[in-house]
Amino acid sequence: MSRHDGVLGLLIHNEERDMQTIDVKRLNDQHPNGRIDLIDVRMPTEFRAVHAKSARSVPLEALEPREVMAGRNGSSNDPLYVICRSGNRSAQACEKFISAGYENVINVEGGTTAWEQAGLPVVRGKKAMPLMQQVQISAGFLVLLGVVLGYFVHPYFVGLSGFVGAGLMFAGFSGLCPMASLIAKMPWNQCGSVKSCSV
What we know:
Layout: E1 2-3, E2 12-14, E3 19-23, H1 24-30, E4 38-40, H2 44-49, E5 50-52, E6 55-57, H3 65-70, E7 80-83, H4 88-99, E8 105-109, H5 111-117, E9 122-124, H6 131-152, H7 158-174, H8 178-184
Parallel strand pairs: 3-8, 4-6, 4-7, 7-8
Antiparallel strand pairs: 1-2, 2-3, 5-9
Helix pairs in contact: 6-7, 6-8
């Protein structure tokens, strides 16, 4: 990583992904009034549970870079900040923007977790089970199911456990988790309306 000129010269440039990042303290110092364009790419229910006060919900699974940029009311040249829980999903979102030709997008390091820990203003609402916890429960259940079926029904069912294990390894190496993407689309991870996810 090397320093480069960015927002007030305090951004960090990620050479591998050609992505700008900023930590929550610097972001708050630069915009103490909270007037920033900040999108939260977590699931709607995660956003409803707790989010940065200045953030708006744009779930990663439904993210269309051109639509987001077109709806910025003439502020397309201003930085667009992207946040999630810890920084991984927001990095994926930034890559989508960069691939679509939008360079002035900035990943918020540490995500909403770091934002909360820094004591910055948040909005709290109805809690929901975090996505990664849902993934852990689902993966554990499938591994256990494969072992039980392999023992009591047919040895080939052990392949289910192996398949899940391979999927988790792929997620660990690539940073992409197909199971998480699938679970994020489940009805219980959606809100009935935009309004119901704002509180």
